[in-house]
Amino acid sequence: MELLSSSRQDACLDCKHNFCRECIFGHLKKNASSCPTCHIPIFPSEIMRNQFLESILVAWKAVESELRTLETHKKDFPRLTVDDMDRALTHMAGSGASQFVSTVATQSSSSSTSSASAAGASTPSATSMSRGPVVNNKWNIDTKSILNEQKQPKRMTGVASSPMRSSSTTATEAHAESPGPTQMTQLTQMTQMTQMTPSFATPSLY
């Protein structure tokens, strides 16, 4: 407390002990090379400023005057405390309580409305309930696959069938295949030549 109240500069050793800067250097000048608290060997070059303690000193100097003022008015503390509590209770019993009640009512009404809308969205209506289980579950039927099958061309399986030919085409082909009179004469001559056999005298075996 003496160090905090004074305006002296602080010094921090490697062992994390803090001393007054003038005091620790005076201690080292007396042919002592160890910490006064833990007796760990130290050197003047190892002495550093403790920035954390400096920030505490700055904060202490800021509130020191306020603490001294409070010490002089300590007898008024009970009265000030009672007055503060009375004002807080009056505020809660008045506008504060009514505002709290209205806020709770608004939140409860909004939560009930959201729950009712969610229940209505998840539960089918009475008209759909009377149409049977198939119609009630019609939103679960996936119609995309059926539409895609209708749009895709049908695949041909097995032997490919020949296209249908018209009657005129068939008659033309039949007329082209039937032989003419010249062809008939040639066929007759070829048949007669094949039927003619050479007459050779076969010697009798007896």
TrEMBL record:
SUPFAM superfamilies: RING/U-box. Residues 12-38 form the Zinc finger C3HC4 RING-type domain. One of its GO terms (molecular function) is zinc ion binding. It is found in: Nucleus. Keywords: DNA damage, DNA repair, Metal-binding, Nucleus, Repeat, Zinc, Zinc-finger. Residues 108-182 are annotated as: Disordered. Residues 137-150, 159-172 have a biased composition (Polar residues). One of its GO terms (biological process) is double-strand break repair via homologous recombination. It comes from the Eukaryota. Residues 108-130 have a biased composition (Low complexity). The keyword Amino-acid biosynthesis does not apply. Its main location: nucleus. The keyword Mitochondrion does not apply. InterPro entries: BRCA1-associated, Znf_C3HC4_RING-type, Znf_RING/FYVE/PHD, Znf_RING_CS. It holds the Pfam family zf-C3HC4. GO terms for cellular component: nucleus. PANTHER family: BREAST CANCER TYPE 1 SUSCEPTIBILITY PROTEIN, BREAST CANCER TYPE 1 SUSCEPTIBILITY PROTEIN BRCA1. This is Zinc finger C3HC4 RING-type domain-containing protein.
